[in-house]
């Protein structure tokens, strides 16, 4: 049976060897000299060999045996390996290192996360973060298959996601997006039925209309475009109109306008989505707590 070597005993051995004495090692370890002697004796018993020559009464120096000389670099290597692992695990527990993976709907990834993450990593410069942006269905799928630690999305059909926990954080209203020169552009608000007179382009957020009186618009849509960059290009080209939540509206566009959809009033709630029966990594848990703290009232 292999001996179980204690890191504390290895440290005592290295200190005695490097400082050439038990007294000096005891001072470094903040222990008594007899305690260090007992520690070394126990280590020698485990190894089955003496580590130090019998001390000469005329000399206080501790001299290594040939076995001790061979063991010294091995002991140092074991201590260094132990300390590296202990440091890595401590940093990980303090969310200062490791790899965090999250997925988010594009509107939050582009508008909210840059500021949140820049402040979060200020205290964890060695933490690696992978952020995937996609529509809500894709985000939920990544959470489901544990490809990410948690997601930021809307949870439309809660009965389909009984194994997930949803913490709502943000909400925005759905509106109609069209070109500035479109006949609808000057409207203050819109009734869903008005949209039936125009070419509709549905997108990944169009599911928000399901279960509302505006649901027939989903069947009326002539085009479906999943990518936001492509959707904006089609809208700017005058291909048609679409519905989008306010956060998703490309406010940097000078050619598009947003008109509130008031009948029905559709609100998108966005929050943190995670598996209910899985613990988060220390870094992921820390980020979740950080995001929640930023959204506390007052």
Per CATH, the superfamily of the largest domain is: Periplasmic binding protein-like II
Query: What is the level 1 CATH name of the largest domain?
Result: Alpha Beta
Please give the alpha-carbon distance between the first and last residues: 62 Å
CATH architecture of the largest domain: 3-Layer(aba) Sandwich
Strand/helix succession: HHHHEHHEHEEEEHEHEEEH
Total strands: 10
Number of individual domains = 3
Task: Assign an overall shape.
Answer: rod-shaped
CATH topology-level fold name of the largest domain: D-Maltodextrin-Binding Protein, domain 2
Largest sheet: 8 strands, mixed
User: Structural class of the secondary elements?
Assistant: alpha/beta
Helix percent reads 25-40%
| Rg (CA only) | 32 Å
DSSP strand content: 15-25%
Number of helices: 10
Q: What value does the average pLDDT take?
A: 90
Low-confidence stretches: none
Task: Report on the architecture of this protein.
By secondary structure, the protein is α/β, with parallel strands linked by helices. It folds into 3 domains: 7-93, Arc Repressor Mutant, subunit A (Orthogonal Bundle), CATH 1.10.10.10; 99-170 and 269-294, Periplasmic binding protein-like II (D-Maltodextrin-Binding Protein, domain 2); 171-268, Periplasmic binding protein-like II (D-Maltodextrin-Binding Protein, domain 2, 3-Layer(aba) Sandwich), CATH 3.40.190.10. Helix content is 38%, strand content 20%. It contains 10 helices and 10 strands. The chain has helices spanning 7-19, 22-29, 33-47, 66-93, 106-111, 113-120, 136-144, 216-220, 228-236, 282-294, and strands at 99-104, 128-133, 150-153, 164-179, 190-191, 201-202, 223-224, 242-245, 256-263, 267-275. Strands 1, 2, 3, 4, 5, 8, 9 and 10 form an 8-stranded mixed sheet that branches. Residues 5-65 form the HTH lysR-type domain.
